[in-house]
Specification:
This is Probable GTP-binding protein EngB. By secondary structure, the chain is an alpha/beta fold. It is about 30% helix and about 25% strand.
Length: about 200
């Protein structure tokens, strides 16, 4: 596998409706998951840019669709693939008001179903908690929406080796209609090359 890297990553735009999507048409790789699953940390880790996406210890803080323009390339090569990383609001935070949750779900649905540039949606799940009903519901909805989905199990560094093996087997069984799940640690950047390779497959 060739070594890949993201360069020139920068914040570009924030949106809550399609009229606010960036004017520049680029392929998009989006990240969706339960609140506090580690979407922003994963984006920072992939880009090797600690302060790119805002990270909060409190769930439910990402309340908009945030776009980050970046370029993907093989290390040392000149060919670059410009694209957007798209950080979607987290779902399922109980303390968020009903009206706020409905608004978020509306513009997440609008983005997933209408964005002409969406190439791949990375569904993030917590590697410690396989089979959460809310993650299964999100997965089933994405599959019926005909979106290409890559499952990423985050926070791998919080599990022992046997737990990782057991939980990843469960994830493969539960989310059987996607590519093989990728185990990821934002802290150690474990799994970053696998994720970048999947991105490249949909950008090249």
């Amino acid at each position: 596998m060739e070594s890949l890297e993201i360069i020139n990553a920068r914040y570009t735009a924030t949106a809550v409706k399609k009229e606010q999507y960036p004017a520049e048409q680029l392929p998009e790789i989006a990240f969706l998951g339960r609140s506090n699953v580690g979407k922003s940390s994963l984006i920072n880790s992939l880009c090797n840019y600690k302060g790119l996406a805002r990270v909060s210890g409190a769930p439910g803080k990402t309340q908009t669709i945030n776009y980050y323009r970046a370029e993907l390339r093989a290390v040392g090569e000149e060919v670059r693939h410009p694209f957007y990383l798209v950080d979607l609001p987290g779902y399922g935070y109980a303390k968020t008001g009903i009206k706020q949750r409905e608004m978020w779900s509306h513009f997440i649905r609008e983005y997933v179903q209408t964005s002409p540039s969406l190439r791949l949606l990375c569904l993030l799940v917590d590697s410690r908690h396989p089979g959460l009903e809310i993650d299964i519901q999100a997965y089933e909805w994405l599959i019926t929406s005909s979106v290409k989905v890559q499952l990423i199990a985050t926070k791998a560094d919080k599990l022992k080796a046997k737990e990782r093996q057991k939980n990843m087997s469960l994830y493969k069984e539960i989310f059987s209609q996607t590519e093989t799940p990728i185990l990821y640690s934002s802290l150690k950047r474990q799994g970053s090359q696998l994720v970048l390779q999947r991105c490249l497959e949909h950008l090249a």
